[in-house]
């Protein structure tokens, strides 16, 4: 009870601090004339302020419906500010921006361009009203009716093809003849009028304001695009080859002696996933002009279609994305897997922005089957700033929980159905527990746990112990066919119960932990009653044996070791899992001591996407088109899941304590003669490598300060070990079959064993 009270008090205090970022004088404002709440509306705001001196630090708090760009004294301060709404369906994030470097003594010109989506999608819940909220308390600057504004007349909406209904963004048309010029500086232009005050901080429809939990975007800056030209009878198409699939905004510079001619800007992903996505159009004015379309899209090529008579001076692109970098890495002596890792990293990054995406083109949706894998991929590769993305997403998932305790995905957005299998995976070991182990963030775990407990309360066991089937929402277990859904649900339920038992224990609730253990014991009995001697099958299931079910049974512990020989054999004949669930099959192979075959299966199944010369990212399905599943995008990061297996099982690097205070290195050095892995943990970089040569295997390991490693050499005869043997430990709890355990403090180590 005391813990709960303290948590509530802390939450209330945090809310007070956030509310205090906006002074009482701050008002939500919009333009006073025109249809300010229409779809795809752009509003220009100006405010001048005179400063006699510059405070040591001036921080602006800014909220917008839906996105904004900020200039001070003509200099861009924020390129695309504001996250899509959250963390609840009705509340709104806000940014905190240090504007000190951009201020000067005397007159300061503050300009904001607002983009109001005006519609919901799979990644955004519309507020229903455009609006800007601004507060810089240190200089007494706040949004009110004294700000001048107008609907920007140059912005409009492209014609066909219209973006599919999953996207909240519109395709942007810009008429250069209606351009406002340098409206961000100089005298405020005609057409601007006093802004309309429409609400206080915290008022509906924007409601509670929550400080942005992730960093502002990383802006890589404009880069010149090289292009080839396809000639046409009336227009030419410039084909710009981008270095890789990226989130970018196109920039064109042209000269048109006449004006009034339409330039279309599209990417090769306009129909990524089968349905139209976003594109851009620019209408020229007479003379030389430069234009950047601020609505990002993605792809590997840009297609700029230019009417004859318009001279192109340059085509550029600005890459932006989540502010995190790939600093970890995997490398080996097999080019296939090196390419696989490289494509996985590219796919992961193009799917990180406001949220984790399933894809950056068709949906931009935070589906949590995808999210669990993307999150873990980032733990093994990205700077720890990526952890904020994971925390944000998990909190959004739980804070969207309904009164009946269901949770659903994708969120945030206008999707309204539960996906039971994905939900169980996310609240279970692959999702929330993995987040906790990699970050050590007990506070967030405590915040998530009540939602998880409530969700598990609606999952029941039948009299025989098997999970009762819930015919609700979207009963999706995976793409593809031959899905034994009763067994898939039961296995994911078991995995979620295991995570809940661990959470309850670390949060000081042993009674609840014991309850979940009891549920697990009953479920295991019911699950194993479905073993037919060669595989797990539900009695009502009539199709081919589901490899997914066998994989989940192994990695969860539902299947005892006596089942392994039959399951190993089954994996060689049954291949129904999509690229999403294939990761768990690979895990199971390693758990059963069949890692070599697991890697062979990865090589064969992912071959088309890994070796495809035209794509720098991985596919949603096993191929493109009919082989693509669900629309078949070519940039689904879930297809990198087996590389988590490489990190956790082949290289064997996993945290044993939350936050990496103690971690394990238990390699299974198959497939490669040489491999290395760098993992950027919250404690520092873990570096591990092995090399086979001349009948020996050499291992090197760097253990960061503040940690210790339990290192398992795959040999039992200590005489075959060359290295610092004083670290060999006899602790009974650390012993594993077929290995020699070493307990290593911070430092660098080298061990060689005779094969």
The pLDDT mean sits at 95
Determine the structural class based on helices, strands and strand pairing.
alpha+beta
Question: What value does the Rg take, in angstroms?
Answer: 28 Å
Give the CATH topology of the largest domain.
Glycosyltransferase
Number of domains: 4
CATH architecture call of the largest domain: Alpha/alpha barrel
What percent of residues adopt helix (DSSP H or I)? 10-25%
The main β sheet shows up as: 10 strands, mixed
For this structure, what is the CATH class of the largest domain? Mainly Alpha
Q: Poorly predicted ranges (pLDDT <50, ≥5 residues)?
A: 1-18
User: What distance separates the N and C termini?
Assistant: 57 Å
Net shape: globular
What is the number of E strands? 31
Number of helices: 15
Beta-strand portion reads 25-35%
Polypeptide structure, described:
This protein is of the alpha+beta class. It has 4 domains: 22-152 and 179-213, Sandwich (Jelly Rolls); 220-321, Galactose-binding domain-like (Jelly Rolls, Sandwich); 329-650, Glycosyltransferase, CATH 1.50.10.10; 662-754, Maltose phosphorylase, domain 3 (Sandwich), CATH 2.60.420.10. β27 (674-681) and β28 (684-693) form a beta hairpin. The longest helix is centred in the middle third of the chain and has 22 residues, at 485-506.
